[in-house]
Amino acid sequence: MAHRPGWWRPIPNLGRQGAHHVETFVAAYPDLSRRAASLAPYEAVTAQSVPRWSLDALPADLDGSRGRFRAPRDGCGLAATNDYQAIEAWLALHESPHTARAYRREAERLLLWAIVERRQPLSSLTTDDAIAYRAFLRHPTPHARWTGPPRPRTTSAWRPFAGPMTARSTAYALAVLRALFGWLINQHYVVLNPFAGVTVRGGATRMPFDVAGRRPIVSGTS
Fold first, then answer.
1. Does 130 lie in the same domain as 68?
2. pLDDT, tens digit (0-9, with 9 covering 90-100), for 156-191
3. Dihedral of alpha carbons 132, 133, 136, 137, sign
4. Which of 4, 6, 9, 181 could form a disulfide with 193 if both were Cys (CB 3.0 to 4.6 A apart)?
């Protein structure tokens, strides 16, 4: 620190005298300074990274096998035992690879947000959670954890979002998620659609077309 003249100038209200006191303290406790320096990179990484869990192998308390709004198992039309498997079953309905890719992106973003920010599975989300997710899409925070330039998903630099979403993109994402939960209700996998009635000011007022441009999203078809 003492080897960087003027290091204190960008720090508001510190001043030359305050900087001198800091330098004196650091010089008196060199071991403490070294330990703090070694901890800083670790803390920055752990605070900013999205956990690199495999979404098809989540911890039992987050995978949805015991989700709060799971329907009775004996009446379910799916072989899925957890939320990721249920999402995969829904995606398998769509023949267009472009549509399936777009829907997967929205479903997996929500799944990540649920387990990282809400610490609960997809099948435990409430309408309050859906409203919070709408706000999150407009302003994904913390930014260092959720946003960044395109990177391979297998790298630690990958982030789910490039930045804040527009009203139109947010409306599209919510429409996809309404369709997902609507289909899961029809299959008796869950009993609640948390995105029902959640709208976006300035977003699309009609159901968005699939990415191939053929027809609107409806539950279970493409």
1. yes
2. 888 999 999 999 999 999 999 999 999 999 999 999
3. negative
4. 181
Same domain, residue pair 202 and 178: yes
Residue 121, preceding peptide bond in cis (omega within 30° of 0): no
pLDDT digits (tens, 9 = 90+) for 39-86: 444 444 444 555 555 677 788 889 999 999 999 999 999 999 999 999
Tokens of 143: 């930014």
pTM: 0.71
Place of tokens 């997710």: 133
| Separation between Cα atoms, residue 30 and residue 6, nearest integer Å | 20
Instruction: Say yes or no: 115 and 30 in one domain.
Output: no
Which spans in 59-166 are helix H? 83-91, 97-117, 127-138, 143-146
Partners of residue 209 on adjacent β-strands: 216
- On whether residue 10 sits in a domain, the answer given is no
**Residue range of the domain that includes 128:** 51-222
Please check whether residue 8 lies inside any domain of the structure: no
| 37 and 141 belong to one structural domain | no
State the Cα–Cα distance between residues 28 and 49, nearest whole angstrom.
Answer: 34
- Lookup: tokens for 165: 């979403």
Is there a domain that residue 212 lies in?
A: yes
